[in-house]
Design goal:
Shape: globular
CATH class: Alpha Beta
Distance between the termini: 39 Å
Helix content: 10-25%
Number of helices: 4
Strand order of the largest sheet: 1-2-3-4-5-7-6
Number of strands: 9
CATH architecture: 3-Layer(aba) Sandwich
Largest sheet: 7 strands, mixed
CATH superfamily: Gcn5-related N-acetyltransferase (GNAT)
Structural class: alpha+beta
């Protein structure tokens, strides 16, 4: 079961953070995140943090998504992402962004399954501000354009509960190129 994080969850969250990322966030960063969308799996074996942009009320960023190594590939990341996207959709968010290490193939596949598309790839020296792991060389910026009324459903149903079925907001498979043009296939540069 997914729920909102509390101060009492932070010790468990920090353990997962240290196991998941080479450069972990501080306890102070997590305390500040409690004011944002901060979800945990009930037993605190995974968490998601998202932030709505203060200037553009239609944009949000998924700051963190992590699952304890012993609980990966059990659906917890999927459940956290579905719940987070539902909350963002309910808040009227139209664009969700995130940065992910290109070497984290399971994470990239998960985000792609939910309609996120790579819009930018950067080498380590250009993406040091987004560094989650000092050994990472490339990061992807991925974006999901959420649309409330979209009849295109590229993926099988996610959940029988209509509130959690995100197919209605997933865009056709597309990505934005460096020149701002929209392409119907993934671009790598």
């Amino acid at each position: 079961m997914i729920r909102t994080a509390t101060e009492q969850d932070l010790d468990s969250v920090l353990k997962i953070e240290r196991l998941s990322f080479g450069i972990p966030w501080s306890i102070a960063s997590f305390r500040r995140a409690l004011q944002e969308i901060f979800l945990v799996e009930n037993e605190v074996v995974g968490y998601l943090i998202a932030e709505c942009c203060r200037r553009n009320c239609y944009t949000a960023t998924i700051e963190k998504l992590a699952v304890h190594p012993e609980h990966r590939r059990t659906g917890i990341g999927k459940e956290l992402l579905e719940t987070g996207l539902t909350i963002l959709m309910d808040r009227g968010i139209e664009l969700v962004m995130l940065n992910v290490e290109s070497s984290r193939n399971p994470a990239v596949r998960l985000y792609t399954k939910y309609g996120f598309r790579v819009t930018y790839s950067s080498f380590h020296h250009a993406s040091i501000l987004f560094a989650m792991d000092s050994k990472a060389s490339t990061f992807f910026t991925m974006k999901l354009q959420m649309r409330k009324k979209n009849t295109f459903a590229p993926h099988p149903p996610l959940n029988e509960n209509p509130k959690l079925n995100l197919n209605g907001i997933l865009p056709p498979f597309e990505t934005e190129g460096r020149d701002g043009a929209i392409w119907d296939e993934m671009l790598w540069w």
